[in-house]
Amino acid sequence: MKNQLFLKDAGTMLVRILFAVVAAFPIVFMLVSSLKPDQQIFGDMSSLAAFLPVGNISFDNYAAVFDRVPAARFLLNSVGVSAVTVILGIFVNSLCAFALSRMQVRGKKIVFTAILATLIVPFQTLALPLVWWVNQLPYFELNGFSLEFSKGWLDTYQVQIIPFIANAFSIYLFHQYFESIPKELDEAARIDGAGWFKIYRQVVMPLSGPATATVAILTFLPAWNSYLWPLMVVQSEELRPVMIGIQYFFQLNVSWGEVMAYASLITVPVVVLFIAFQRSFVNSIASSGVKG
Amino acid sequence: MQRPRSLQDPINPSTLSKQKDRPMNKKLTRILATSIAAAALTATLAGCGKGSASSSTEGSGEIALWTHNAGNPEELAAVQGIVDSYNSSQDKVKIKVQAFPQDSYNDSVVSAAAAGNLPCIVDIDGPNVPNWAWAGYLEPLELDTDLSKHLPSTVAEWDGKPYAVGYYDVALAMMARASDLEAAGVRVATMEQPWTKEEFQDALTKLKALGKWEHPLDLGTAGTGEWLPYAYSPFLQSFGGDLVNRDGFQSADGELNGEEAVQWANWFRGLADEGFMAKKSGKDSTQDFLNNKSAIVYTGSWAADKAKEALGDDLVVMPPVDLGEGPKIGGASWQWGVTSGCSDTGAAMDYLAYSLKPENIAAVAKATGAIPASEEAAAQIPSFTEGGANRIFMDFSREYAVMRPETPAYPFIATEFGKATQDILNGADPQATLDSAVKAIDANIKSNGGYNN
Known about the structure:
heterodimer; A: mainly alpha; 2 domains; 14 helices; 67% helix; flat; B: alpha/beta; D-Maltodextrin-Binding Protein, domain 2; four-stranded mixed β-sheet; 15 strands; 45% helix; disordered N terminus; sugar transport (chain A); transmembrane helix (chain A); MetI-like_sf (chain A); MetI-like (chain A); membrane (chain A)
């Protein structure tokens, strides 16, 4: 019996390892290829050597990446844009979800349904009209102690952030999670003199860690991977995010080693974030019943 | 806003009265603090976030120039060199270069056009010029330069007017190792005597028989986008077909689905069916060729220096196959135009005329290894003078280049042709596929009123 159990466990483990290896192959290939010259990448392609750091290994591709692309600037831009989008996104969407979950407002079901309905419309269909709209918005900047006004948000940081703060899916996730928090807690806080914002800040949000982590990841990933929108609205190199940078490598003669090195560089922050929030992410997915 | 019922029934009146009696100034302070925080956040974003190269800077003696060269430091440096030279030659206007990555450049320009935010000077892939001119993005060029001395494929015209001019062109060619051809008993094709269809078939058979390669030919079948019409429509034209009837550009019927076109389709698929080439090649055909995974690669002049460096004198550069109407290659590469909303068209034209000086053309051609647009410029580059290593590409361009159809419908035609080519390669019936492409193209032309000006 013990042997049978052991064999069963070993078999399950083997299948898991197999899946893990298959899932890891592209990432391993990317990392390993980033260390090889182009000719070797293609030479190794038909053998297991494609996944092994063998042959002429160096960091030359990484050095070349920084020569071709202002990679540090792009990384900084993406970190900044993604972080601000995530922070403001958590704040705005959780507030909206809190209002829809807790406040007795006439027509709130209609509002909630309308918000959810926006999920049906793909961003690509909105992109071009949105470009026109953001170019009509007023813009101001501080010049010394005076404010200068002009028109158009194109080629700015805020055009990469503000349209993506309010997010229907984040509102839905927060709303569903808030619904699972007993309303008696609000009432108890009310008795103790708490206002709506205090209940939100000191009761509901501290209990919503998993939902916040999920929203953080689900906001961060599209912000980090953002490509079409910055392509359309950002013209200055100093404002571009990392995903635009990958296009710098696709010239008539493509250096695949540099492509892999750049891809490795821009993958690291995403992996770090996922590992940091992994437990909360899985908990939230499990508790909200959302399937990926 | 209606308060929740639970709160309308006070459980602890003293608490509620405390809330009711909350001093007004405390609320005001909170609102004020929140407003200041929000304003500060937006101001911070705004203050540090405006791009320096926005076209909004135009009108202040500075005009913007957009180019597709981001990630191509050599060509970008050459363009920047011309701009710097022009800027220092006069003090009326400053040109500001803004570089975009090539693969996404068109999308950036089209978005900017939709937002009414185009710069003064843009570079454009030659075949797209008629479409951009028709869409109203471009002004006809009025330059103090004799464009008749330029390679015909470097000047893009539409409706009888020039709309864009380029510093260079590129040319397609067949590259192989002389040693491989000799081993297989195949002669080297030349401009005087290119391979015929039968000779090409024979050469592939002999090369395959050597057993060195799974597929001796690499036509870059993994390519996508503009590569498909650029690379494969010249074969169609060599058979006698075309992408569209060039007399008025109103229909593709009879050209893209005629007898010659079907012959082209059968021949093209036959190369894969007979095992001479892969239905989907590797991602980088030149690199595969250099790694000896193919005997003959169909690529462009841009790969010549890399191949020459790797193979030395063993490299042979040959014209494309003569499939009946002579060898053909696609003409036109990146060119420069002036946008119709430019705030200072005169300055933009003046810059373009300045940039077309032979030394400027030579500088860009040297940086890119591309074919210089004029003989005067070619004379300044040893590899493009008579007998030079790359002169053959200039000759190919002059002798074989066929402009992709100069019609605003071209982007649509190119997409349909690309789809049809891939479908045929993957086993679709040639006649039915080409008929379907023709139907779509004709419908598009009709729905756009014939793309007349």
